[in-house]
Design brief:
alpha+beta, two-stranded antiparallel sheet, 33% helix, metal ion binding, Nodulin_late_dom, signal, Nodule Cysteine-Rich (NCR) secreted peptide
Length: 58
């Protein structure tokens, strides 16, 4: 029974460390390298990374 608890703790620690080590930045040179814009959210290339910006229509 104790082995299952140890295995479970190791599994959750491993998943936590892997989830924190993910690079989520999209590298870009121009705005065209970023994902396409949607109705409310757009992407701009800022400092070599695609940053999301919210579009406001007035």
């Amino acid at each position: 029974m104790a082995h299952k608890l140890v295995y479970t703790i190791i599994l959750f620690i491993f998943l936590f460390l892997v989830a924190n080590n993910v690079e989520g930045d999209i590298v870009c040179i121009t705005d065209n390298d970023c994902p396409p814009n949607t109705l409310v959210q757009g992407y701009r290339c800022i400092d070599g990374k695609c940053e999301s910006v919210f579009l406001s229509y007035r």
